[in-house]
TrEMBL record:
Active site: 425
Residue ranges, compositional bias (Basic and acidic residues): 22-31
Protein name (database record): 23S rRNA (uracil(1939)-C(5))-methyltransferase RlmD
Organism of provenance: Halomonas lysinitropha
Record's function text: Catalyzes the formation of 5-methyl-uridine at position 1939 (m5U1939) in 23S rRNA.
Stretches with biased composition (Basic residues): 1-10
Name of one Pfam family that matches: TRAM
GO molecular function: 4 iron, 4 sulfur cluster binding; iron ion binding; RNA binding; rRNA (uridine-C5-)-methyltransferase activity
Catalytic activity: uridine(1939) in 23S rRNA + S-adenosyl-L-methionine = 5-methyluridine(1939) in 23S rRNA + S-adenosyl-L-homocysteine + H(+)
Gene: rlmD
Region named Disordered: 1-35
Length: 481
């Protein structure tokens, strides 16, 4: 408990952080050992080192960095490549650092903590450019970087709960490439208010009469304080009272999803009106949300993305029509409306559509926001075509889930708009959709990589497109053509 909520002292870089074994620079390997010694030439999109065997076969190596020489053990053989992990680090990269998290070697959450922060971010910028290049797109502009703090940034997380056959309680994140849980008592990326709950939550789970009925826990930070949402398979009144006592002692809001299939949501403490803030052109805006609504995990980087969107799209003429697709609870819709646009915000989840409308009304005082909230299924091109014809927007903002927005992109080629801002949480699907747009007459004007999940290989990105006509060729060397 003495370390609860505090950072463990950072270890001096050792050159072997996150690895087992020793550096032995002077020992000459045997001929057999040389078959397992590889020089790492690059970093894959998922953060693994990339090397080639003497025979030319590609090997993806967990825990290895470019420029390193490593002895590896292959744990999976495939036809075109092998997957391996480091057995011994023979030559370390100067960009290798000691991971700040004590759980790094086991936890699957942060896979790049052994790489310096600047190098992580350069890697993410390079990934975006490479994936666009694979689609034949040369934007002619370099990705800007939107980055915040390296620790204490994550305001939402899901923790798994498992009870062993012997009754042992486990609370934590999944191990790499496994369903096994890694117990955690500290997390360098969680905001302090959530990290401080880890040890008390583990203690509470051990005191429950029916801990096996707990599936997982969701932790959220809001302007009203920390929120704990329990996924409970069956009701247990005694344990419900224990959860309520926990909430009272720790000053948190408590809710639960009860049931296996059609789970029902209910607050176990007085229901709060949860909200968070996001920047607008004339001050912050308040976004109400509920557990289960989409909320960006990194508030600081999300704010940078909103500010970037306002900057890239400026100036917006008074009353200019903007169509915001996959709008959520209004993360981009409200700031754009506050900048003077007339926004039609479309979201598939009816509950979030209702909250989006409530948020627009709550922030309208003194601003005169024009936001129309609509519900629509955006997975098919017909619905998107109808929206484009009905709204006739000059600007489209697109913030889809990981599967991207291929149907929307195809519809935007058939019914082009002057400007399109595409916000993506998956660079591969973004590159696929960008190819449709570029071949359909759009050109990339601005690019940015947002380091939403620091110390992981995951990246968010933003592309601003402008329509230049019906040219059916890939974007070439300059974006000004």
């Amino acid at each position: 408990m003495a370390m609860l909520g505090k950072r463990r002292p950072t270890r001096a870089p050792s050159g072997v952080s996150g690895l087992q074994g020793r550096q032995e620079h002077n020992r000459k390997p045997s001929a057999a050992e040389e078959q397992d010694i590889l020089d790492v030439r690059g970093l894959a999109h998922d953060g693994r080192g990339v090397a080639r065997t003497i025979q030319g076969k590609t090997v993806f190596i967990e825990g290895a960095l470019p420029g390193e020489r490593v002895k590896v053990a292959v744990h999976r053989t495939r036809k075109r490549f092998d997957e391996a992990h480091v057995r011994e680090l023979l030559l370390a990269s100067p960009e290798r650092v000691a991971p700040p998290c004590p759980h790094f070697e086991r936890c699957g959450g942060c896979d790049l903590q052994h790489l310096t922060l600047p190098a992580q971010r350069r890697h993410k910028q390079a990934v975006l450019e490479e994936l666009l290049g694979r689609q034949g797109i040369t934007p002619g502009v370099s990705p800007e970087l939107l980055a915040g703090a390296g620790e204490d940034y994550r305001r939402r997380a899901r923790l798994g709960v498992k009870v062993n056959a012997d009754g042992g309680i486990h609370l934590g994140f999944r191990a790499r490439h496994s369903h096994r849980l890694v117990d955690i008592d500290a997390c360098t990326v969680l905001v302090p208010a959530l990290e401080a709950l880890l040890v008390p939550l583990h203690q509470l789970l051990a005191e429950l009469e029916a801990p096996r009925q707990v599936g997982h826990l969701e932790l959220l930070e809001s302007d009203q304080g920390a929120v704990v949402v329990v996924r409970q398979l069956r009701d247990h009144p005694g344990d419900a009272r224990r959860w309520q006592a926990f909430a009272s002692v720790h000053g948190v809001h408590l809710a639960r999803w009860l049931g296996r299939e059609a789970a029902e949501f209910a607050w176990l403490t007085p229901a709060p009106a949860l909200s968070c803030r996001v920047s607008g052109p004339d001050g912050s805006l308040t976004l109400g949300f509920a557990p289960g609504d989409f909320l960006q995990a990194n508030a600081e980087v999300n704010d940078l993305m909103v500010r970037t969107a306002l900057s890239w799209l400026a100036p917006l003429a008074a009353g200019e029509r903007v169509l915001d697709l996959f709008a959520g609870v209004g993360n981009f819709s409200l700031p754009l409306a506050a900048a003077g646009a007339r926004v039609t915000a479309v979201e598939g989840n009816p509950a979030m559509v209702a909250r989006l409308g409530d948020n627009a009304r709550a922030n309208a005082s003194g601003r005169g926001l024009e936001v129309e909230a609509r519900q629509a299924d955006l997975s098919g091109p017909a619905a998107v075509r109808d929206l484009l014809q009905d709204v006739a927007p000059a600007v489209v903002v697109l913030d889809p889930p990981r599967e991207g927005a291929e149907a929307v992109s195809r519809a935007l080629v058939e019914h082009p708009v002057a400007r399109l801002l595409y916000i993506s949480c998956d660079p591969a699907t973004l590159a696929r959709d960008a190819a449709h747009l570029v071949h359909g007459g759009y050109r990339i004007r601005r690019m940015a990589v947002a380091d939403m999940f620091v110390h992981t290989s995951h990246l968010e990105s933003m592309l601003l497109f402008e329509y230049h006509g019906s040219a059916r060729q890939s974007q070439g060397g300059s974006s000004d053509g």
